[in-house]
Amino acid sequence: MSSPPPVLAPAFSLYLDLVRVLSAAAVVAAHFAYTGAVAPGAWGVAGEMGREAVIVFFVLSGFVIAASTAQRRPDGRSYALSRLTRLYSVALPVLLLAFAAGAVFRLLDVPVPTAGYTLDKPQLYIPFHLLFLGQSWTLTEAPPFMIPYWSLCYEAWYYLLFGLACYLRGKRRIFLIAAALALMGYKMWLLLPVWLAGAWLYQAGGLPRLSPALARLGWLASLLAFGLYVGLGLEAPLRAAGSAAWPFAALPLGSADRFLADYLVCAIVLANFACARDARFGSLLRLDRPIRLLASHTFTLYLSHMLVIRCWLAFVPHRRDSGADLLALLLAILAATILLGGVTERRLPAWRALFARLPGLRPRMQATMPGRETLGA
User: What's the pLDDT tens digit per position in 167-183?
Assistant: First the structure.
């Protein structure tokens, strides 16, 4: 990589964390509606923004990975160690917990809402999901109770591609990137530009900056653009247009079937981030501690909340029109996130030490990366 752009300003870094928190909340709200925990349409558009939140996570992920890599300059081993730590510190415990919960459901003769068949062969499906193969080519697989896991498959392969491109040279780099692309498949190819757009935005940080007044105006314009996208219902026609234009009938688009809408949302998010970078939102610094604390749990929240919702709906009498019941479910999700966070995101040094024992992952210098990097999602 060339000389890195300037270090992120504290206010902009905090803004990105706030975006991460709000995006995670949007995903949870969408899954309340998806599971029937609330009545259809009860939360309006707030219950329909799950996909858009995932696209925000993709752009944010590309940006943060590019920034942390450029600023800290780790070698390839340190990069691999950091990425493995970040992914598996949350994915491994929550995945095992989901399979254990599925076994309890089976024992109590309670139907498993999604992917229950995977419980018949945990020795096959647990390694399969730990390799993030569930969205490769025509596959559409997710662990039980973990629908959000689909996006983690994309993230993991994008991490790999970025690392191969940054740390390898010559024919070896070309061969391994081609092999990774071949294993990923067409769905991940379609959304790769979204993730790379975030990385590009960081690398473009050295371009002429906007004045604070103009940046704030542009930031507001990006919010207006997103409001128009939602208000005009552009997702549906763009989704239909993408499916109609897709020339390979034998290759279902699956989780990438909204790629045209995703590109538009990506452009809006890029504009928002670019303007927020120069807008000098210094007042956010007054909320530094609560925002950082919430952001440090977003990955755990993202992967675990569906498990909590499904268990709650299966074993607790729940009235979806009751404010008290909804509040109790929200508190259960919050409590589970905090408890799990004690062994996932809040224990990254211990996970890093564990993975550092693996062959080939003993870097000469322990170049740690920010613990707030997303999947996020």
Answer: 999 999 999 999 999 99
